[in-house]
Amino acid sequence: MTRIPLNQAELANQGMKDRLEMSTAEIGLAVRTTNCLEEKGVFTVDDLLHCTREDLLSISNFGEKTLDEVYNALAQIGFHRPQMPR
């Protein structure tokens, strides 16, 4: 039996898809943070990436520290935010 190897682009695509489909609970957020996000309808990393900073800060009990927690968790799985101009 021969195996057809997947090319690197297909593997990278699948890896990206897997990360986007991760639940917010899977990326290491505190339970309180996950609950806040889920109350707002944010269940996956993909959902989270479609939220603006203002969207997140408008969630009840969601402040700057929680926002930093979210940004750090996203960075841990390879989603880094662009540097803000000074």
Automatic annotation (TrEMBL):
Residues 15-75 form the RNA polymerase alpha subunit C-terminal domain. GO terms for biological process: DNA-templated transcription. GO terms for molecular function: DNA binding; DNA-directed RNA polymerase activity. The gene is rpoA_2. GO terms for cellular component: DNA-directed RNA polymerase complex. SUPFAM superfamilies: C-terminal domain of RNA polymerase alpha subunit. Keywords: DNA-directed RNA polymerase, Nucleotidyltransferase, Transcription, Transferase. This is DNA-directed RNA polymerase subunit alpha. Its EC number is 2.7.7.6. It holds the Pfam family RNA_pol_A_CTD. It comes from Bythopirellula goksoeyrii.
